[in-house]
Amino acid sequence: MLFRSWIRELSLGYKTRNGISIDATITSAQRTGFRARSASRTELLYSYEFQGNQYTGRVVRDFVFDTASGDSLAYNNHPGEKLPILINQESPEISYYPSGGGAFHPIVAGFQALFVWAVIIGLIRLLLLCMFR
């Protein structure tokens, strides 16, 4: 799941790299799930207008080992508030809320996802070795 959101984050950042910045209006901000004590998911829904047309978008961020950032994103943004986003001018339905870490944040999230998978695979391997001895 983390790997998919990492790829999505990189893709949206790339598609809006030459985009323009506009203000969107937050329609919903919430924590959408806990997977473990050290991981959480936060989701923001927003709407925006560009050249007379109305669009919607969403931000989905996974926070591993940093639930305080997830809390901040979910609980410090309220419906009706403005949110600066980037949009692709050729395809205004493509929007992106930058994470604040620039290109660095998705890379860190990707390494965290790889680390989590390595630990899980290692634990499964250890468990299997102990069971079949």
Summary?
This protein is 38% helix and 37% strand. With 133 residues, it is of the alpha+beta class.
Plain-language structure description:
- This protein is elongated.
- It starts with a helix and ends with a helix.
- The mean pLDDT is 80.
- It has 3 helices and 5 strands; from the N terminus they run αβββαββα.
- Strands 3-2-1-4-5 form a 5-stranded antiparallel β-sheet.
- The longest helix has 28 residues, at 104-131.
- A hairpin with a 2-residue loop joins strand 2 (39-50) and strand 3.
- It has 133 residues and is an alpha+beta fold.
Describe the structure using short key phrases.
5 strands; 133 residues; 3 helices
Write the SSE topology:
Blueprint: H1 2-15, E1 20-36, E2 39-50, E3 53-64, H2 67-75, E4 82-87, E5 95-96, H3 104-131
Antiparallel strand pairs: 1-2, 1-4, 2-3, 4-5
Helix pairs in contact: 1-3
Helicity, as a percent range: 25-40%
Percentage of β-strand residues: 35-45%
Mean pLDDT across every amino acid position: 80
Instruction: Name the strands of the widest sheet in spatial order.
Output: 3-2-1-4-5
Describe the sheet with the most strands: 5 strands, antiparallel
- Compute the number of helices: 3
**SSE class:** alpha+beta
Q: What is the straight-line distance between the termini? A: 33 Å
Radius of gyration from the CA trace? 18 Å
Strand runs, count: 5
User: What's the order of the H and E elements?
Assistant: HEEEHEEH
Oligomer: single chain
Low-confidence segments, given as residue ranges, are none
Please state the overall shape, judged from the principal axes of the Cα atoms.
Answer: elongated
